[in-house]
Amino acid sequence: TGPPEPCKVRIPGGQADVVRFDGASALWQATDVWGTLQGDFSVVAYLRLPVLADGFLFDGSGGAGMSRAQVRGGRWQAGSQPGPVSQNARNPATAIGAATAGSWQAHAFVFRRQAGQLGVVHRMSSATAGPVPAGAAANLAGLVVGANVEGKAGWRGEVAEVLVLDRALAEAELEGATLYLERKWGQPEEIAGFYADPKPDNDPRVFR
Known about the structure:
Blueprint: E1 5-11, E2 14-22, E3 27-29, H1 31-34, E4 36-37, E5 41-48, E6 55-59, E7 66-72, E8 75-81, H2 85-88, E9 94-98, E10 104-114, E11 117-124, E12 127-136, E13 140-141, E14 143-145, E15 156-165, H3 171-185, E16 189-190
């Protein structure tokens, strides 16, 4: 694996960079650098699937917290897996909705704990699915974007922005986050002949 490809695009506010994952690249931060979310949390991403292909959008980067979302068999799956990594990294999660290819969309995954179990809600643009059971309550320890905890099962698509919040967003907040991303990014169009700056941001909390 290696770093994904930055891509220059045209958006409503001018020009910006998005990240293109080819199924063999990922962005990764270790637990001791990125930290661990131990309570409810939300992950919101603005992304595009050019084609329907299996792969992990995000996962924890260690066995202490493998909370993840992926596309498998044409459907979104979200949930959590306990350690060890060697046994559970590639396990399927709970199917939560059909995946679609072609257009840019906002996707939100809201993980909420109740009675020792984890439930997850998936909001895709204006449609909400769930909550569905997501397995034993687990942390999000570190962060991998574009692959699973092993650096495998890579994502094939483009990601403009990922927001990670240390609480479960309410419905009104999900709507607000969706509108923010849709208004900021619109439907990005690649600018032929231009390449984004490949240098990573020095802040480990920010992925480029």
